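Weekend entry, working from home. Most of the wet-lab plans are on hold until the incubator is repaired, so I used the time to fold the two sequences that have been sitting in the queue since the last round of cloning. Logging both here for the record. First:
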Amino acid sequence: MRYLNLIIYFLLISTNSFAQKNQKKIEIINADFTYVNNKSHPDYWRLIGNVNIRHDQTDMFCDSAHYFSEKEKIIAYENVKVKKGDSINISGDILNYDGENKVAIISRNVILINKENILKSQRLIYNIQKKKISFNSLSEISKGNQKISAKKGIYNTNSRSYQFNDSVNYYNNNYQIITDHLISDEKNKITLLKGPSEILFDNKVVFCEEANLFEKENKAEFFKKASLKTEKYILFADSIFFNKNNNNLRAKNNVVLEDSINNFFIESNNALYIENQKKMIFNKNPLLNLVSDEDTVFIKADEFHNQDISSKKILYAFNNVKILNNDIKGKCDSLTFSTSDSLIYLYKNPLLWLDEYQISSDSMRINYYNKRINKLFLISNPIIISKQDSTLFNQIKGKYMEGDFFNNKLKNINVLGNGQSIYFIEENKEIIGMNYLESSNIYLSFKENKINNINYKKSPYSITTPLKDIIEEKKYLKGFNWKIKEKPERQKIFNQQL
C-alpha cells in the first residue's frame, strides 16, 4: 500500500510538471498541412494553410509558418495576426516569434489595434511579457481625431502610455505638436514634451524645450526658452502657463512682450493675460521700450497694463513712472500710451528734464509718431525752469504750451496765453540783474536742447531790476518748484532690471 501511494504521488508530480511545462510550450491549434521529418529534423515543423498557433494566451495566425520546437521559435508569413485577449490585435506580413522570451517581431504593413488606438508601422517589436511595443522606423498611432507619427517609440499596452522619439508629429482638432520626444499617459490624459518643441493652436505658435499638457484640466505648461507667438505679438519667458478654459495665461521670469506692429516691447519678471478683458498685466519690475531708429524711449513703472479696447491698443503705466532716452528724462504718477493715435499722456505732477531745463505741468501729452517724439503739449499751468547759478533760476510759464521736436530733440516751444518769464542778465560772466516780462504769447527756439532765441508775438510788458535790488520773493514765478533730485538716472533704472 505504501509503494502504491508513492507511485501515485510521483505520477501526480510528473503530471503537474508536464502540465506546467506544456503551458510554456507553443501549441499548434490548426494547420491545413503539417510537414515533419522526425528522423533528420524532429524539431522543425512546416505549417501551411490557416495556421493558428497559441502560446500563453496569445494567438498567432498566418498562411504559413516555420516552427522550431526546441527553441520555441516561429517564423510566419502572409496574413499574419497576433491576438492577446480582447485588447491587442496586430496584423502584418511577417512574424518572428521567440517563445522563450515571449517577444514577437512583426514586419511589413503592420497594424496594431489596442482598444481605440491604431498603430501603423513597418516593424514592431511586441514584448508580450513586459506588455510593451516598440518600433524604430517611421510609424503612426491614431485615436479618433488625433494622430502621432515618429521614427522611434515605445507603447505600453497595459498603461496605454507611449513614448515617441525623433521627428515626432502630433495632430488633433485642437492643436499640432512637433517635438523630439513625447510621453503620453492616456489614463491620466497627460502629455509631456522633452527637447525643442513647437505647438500650434488657435492661430498661436508656442516654442519651448519642455512642456506638460493636461487634457482633463485643459491646461498647458511650457518651460525653458518658452515663447508664444500670435498675430499681434510674441511673448518670451522662462515659463508660460496657459488655461484653455478661459484663454488666460501667466508668464514668469525673463518675460518679454514684443509688439513688432507698434514697435515696442515690455520686459518683466511676471505677466498675466486676462482674455475677457483683453488685457495683459506686467507687475514685477516691468520696463517698456519704445523702439526708435535714433533713440529708444524707456518707460519704467511699478505696473503696466497692455489692453485692447475696441480697435485701439492702450498701454497703461501705474505708480512711480519714469521716462528716459538720451535727451529726455521724466517722471509722473501714471501714464497712458495709445498706439492707434501715437499719443502718450502723463498724469499727476508730471515732470520732464531736457538737459538743463525742467518742464512741469498739471498734465502732459507727447505725440510719439513714426518711432519719434514729434510734439509736446503742456496742459494747464506749465512752467519751464533752468538753473542760472546755485540760487538763481530762469523761468517761463503760461496758460498752455506746445513744443515741436526734430529727431527726438526739442526744436521750439510756443507759450500760449498769460506768458511770463524771468531771466537773469549776465555781463562778462557776471549776473547784473533780472528781467521780468509778460506777454500773451512767447516763442522759444532751441538748438541742441538749449534756448537759442526768444520772440514775443505781442508787445510785452517788461521790467529790469539790478541784482542788488531784487526782492527774494520776486525771483520766482507762481508754481516754481525745482525738483532736480527727482530726475531719473539711467543707471539706477537699468540696475533695477538686473
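Second, folded right after the first finished:
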Amino acid sequence: MGKEKYKKIINRITSGAASLVDRYDRGQQKLDKMRLIAHYRFAKKIHEDRKKFIEKKKSIALHFAGFVLVAVGVVAIFNYATGFQYSYNGKALGYVKNQEDVVKLLDMVSAELSEEYGSKIKIDAEKNITFKNVVILDKDVDDIDTVLKRLTYMSDMEAEGYGIYIDDQYFVACESEKTALHTLKSIQKKYMKEDKRTSYLESGFKEKVEVKPVSTKLAYISSAGEAREKIMTGGSEEISYEVKSGDTYSGICQKFDIDFEELKETNPDISMDMLFVGDEIIISEAVPAVTVVTTEKKTYAEKVKYKTEVRKDDSLYENVEKVVQKGSVGKRVVTAKISRENGKETKKEILKSQMITKPVKKIVVKGTKKLPKTAPTGTFIMPVSGYTLTSEFGWRWGRNHDGLDLACGTGTPIYASDGGTVVYAGWYSGYGLFVEIDHGNGIRTRYGHCNSINVSVGEKVYQGQKIAEVGNTGNSFGSHCHFEIVVNGTPVDPFKYL
C-alpha cells in the first residue's frame, strides 16, 4: 500500500510539473494566479507528505534516493514571481519585475538615439510603452542592460524631423532643418558653376519647395546624401524614341536603364513580339523632382562669323571659281544675362558687346563665261549604242579585264564619252586602232579595236562627238568597242561613272 501511494505521489508531481513547463515553453503565459498558488500549495503538501513518509520508512531511504532528487528538482523549477511584460507600440520586448526599470531608462534611450541619428527622438511612457501583469520565471527577467539594449535597437521609433515638400506634397524627411536646407542648397549648386566672369543674380526652384517639421518613423529619416539622391531621381519625363536598325528590346532597356516590364507598361499598344524600324517608343526617364531656375550675368568671349561676298567675272568660264580673299573670324567680348532651368539655357539677353577683332569677309570670284562644247562636263555617256555587253570589268582569263567589251556591227560610230583633248590616236599594241582622251582632273577614257579613227592628237572634242568606228583590230575576237575609264593612271569600273 505504501509503495502504491508513493507511485501516485511521483506521478502527480511529474505530471503537474511537465504540464506547467510545457505551457511556459509554448509562450502561453495567461496562467491564473490562483491556480499557480494552488500548485505551489499542492507541491508543498506533497513535499511535506514525502518527508513524513521518508521519516516513517527510514529503512528504505536509500531505495528511494532517486525519488528525493527528482522531487527536489521539480520543486526548484517552480521559482515563480509576478512581474510585467513591457511593449513598445504594441510590440512585446521582454519582462521586468518593476515598471520603473523601464520608465527610468526612456530619457536615456531618447537622448542616445537623438545624438546618434541627429533627429529629436521622444519616447512617451504613456503613449508608446505599455505593461501587462504576468507571472514569470526569475530567469526570464531582463536586467537593466538588457532593457536598455532592447529599447535602443527598436527600428520603429517615432522621430521628429523636417520634411521637404514639393508643391505641397511630402517628399522626404531629414534629421534636422539644417540638413534639409543643406540638401536643397546642394541641388541648386549642382547647376551653378561660378567662375570669375559669372555671377548669379537669382537662384531658386520653379516649384513650390518648403521645409516643415514632420513626425515619422526613425527608419524614414534620410541623410543629406540620401535625400539629395531621392530628389534628383524622384521625377519622371516621357521621351519619344524612334526604333533604328539593329535595335532590340533588351538593348533599348539597357540604353535607358529601365526594365522590360516598365517598357511594356509605358507602351501598351506596341507589339512586344517584334520591333520595326521607325516605331515610336515612349521611354519614361528618371529626372529631378525639382527644377532649379537660375539667372546669371556672364562675360565671355565669342567668335564672330565672317561673311562671304561672291563677285561675277565674265572673263572666266562658268565652272571656274576662285577665292581672291580668305575669310577670317572675328572676336568679341559679350556680357549677357542668361536664364537657365536645370542648367539648360532658356533665355539670353545681351547687355554689352565689345569687338576685339573684326571679321574679314571672304571674297569669291565666279566665272559667267559659257563653256565651249569641248569642255569636260564631269559626267560620262556610253560611247556606242545598240551594243551587247560581252565582258564586264574585272577578273577574266587569269588576269584583270580593265574595261567593258561592247559588241556591235563593224562601222558603228564611237562617240567621246565626255569633252576633252585627244592624247593618243593610232595603233597601240593589243588594242589595235586606239583613241585616248584626257578629260582633266586625272581622268581619261580609252577606246580600243577601232575599225577607223576620226580624230587626231591635240584635237579638242565634245561629249557625243564621233571619234572612231567599231572594228575588230588588235587582240580581238569579234567586232566590238573596248571602253575604259582611267583615274590617276588606274583603270576603274566604268559603270560607277556612267
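Plan for Monday: verify the second prediction. Residues 2-25 form the longest helix (24 residues).
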